[in-house]
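2,4-dienoyl-CoA reductase
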Amino acid sequence: MKGKTVIITGGSSGMGKYMAKKFTEAGGNVVITGRNEERLQEAKKEILIEGGSLFTIQMDVRNPDDVKRMVLETVEQYGTIDFLINNAAGNFIVPAEKLSINGWNSVIDIVLNGTFYCSREVGLYWIDNNIKGSIINIGTTYSWGAGAGVIHSAAAKAGVLSMTRTLAVEWGRKYGIRVNAIAPGPIDRTGGAERLWESKEAAMRTINSIPLGRLGEPEEIAELAYFLLSDHAAYINGECITMDGGQWLNQHPF
Ligand code: HXC
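Predicted structure tokens:
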């Protein structure tokens, strides 16, 4: 990671922030993006307590012009881009029949379209400059099962999984670019934990559904992302690695 540049979208909170911490500690040049400048600055302060190199870009992954600017500003700041982590997400619990068209579009725009816009723009930069970069998309285990109560997020993340595999084949074959995904289960200190299991009862139900009997830690996701971007994972391409304590397999508890 020393001297390598990584962009983490949605990097001012949750898993994004912990990945940014891990990568700065490992000597990387880290770019975090987010919609809210104040939150970006707070995250920067927190992440840089131990030192390191971090640059913030206020932008919205839903806006293709912002995404273009993200690439330009990163290259201006650090000279190149080595890795992209599509981490920005939007989600809220709502019964499918009550979800408005705007609500549907807003999550699809952030999760599905935003992931494509960022991958496309960074991918074009890599292709033009002959760089064998690597992408990690943050997915979820309900993207291949049922996301009851979060139909917008489930449909968008299923698309992200398909995008992961498709780009891994297209860009792996032609350009040596690797594209992988991480499917986290319930992870503590993240937007998911705050929004999706906000009541004590919901949190207990969630914990009881996990064979290992605990939530995941964001640091564990950061370690996995670090491994996937490293040379140790140079032959892993198009894979989605689940980190959920075995939760999604727990269909018939006894
Ligand atoms: C019903 C809702 C709603 C809610 C928003 N809407 N929240 N409908 N219930 N709780 C509707 C609004 O009424 C509006 O529709 C439409 O969605 C757009 O809302 P805005 O607030 O105008 O959108 P915007 O400001 O763009 O915000 C996007 C957002 C917001 C997705 C709605 O929640 C957001 O910014 N989230 C980012 C952070 C986040 O969600 N993190 C959690 C990620 S966790 P109408 O029809 O009224 O105009 C995750 C993985 C979980 O993704 C994995 C678990 C294992």
